[in-house]
């Protein structure tokens, strides 16, 4: 997605890291760059607003459920692996891969 206007940050880069911005998981200096981009780019600002509302809705509807600690640690481990380039998001991690035993050949 691009609005067609030149910006310091490319629209696709902003949208790729939108949830990091929404979740306040980036350094303050990067947050300032995102805020500048949203001030200049109405399509990205619109997407930001939409995703912000989705987060609020999910929190309101699902925010009271307890998350099992082992699930949280698996998800965080998976995120760390993806960030380190160990696996792609579509590729199962070793611990997530189905166990395979000896294969039986059908004749």
Automatic annotation (TrEMBL):
<dbReference type="InterPro" id="IPR024020">
    <property type="entry name" value="Anit_sigma_mycothiol_RsrA"/>
</dbReference>
<feature type="domain" description="Putative zinc-finger">
    <location>
        <begin position="11"/>
        <end position="44"/>
    </location>
</feature>
<dbReference type="InterPro" id="IPR027383">
    <property type="entry name" value="Znf_put"/>
</dbReference>
<dbReference type="Pfam" id="PF13490">
    <property type="entry name" value="zf-HC2"/>
</dbReference>
<feature type="region of interest" description="Disordered">
    <location>
        <begin position="83"/>
        <end position="107"/>
    </location>
</feature>
<protein>
    <submittedName>
        <fullName>Mycothiol system anti-sigma-R factor</fullName>
    </submittedName>
</protein>
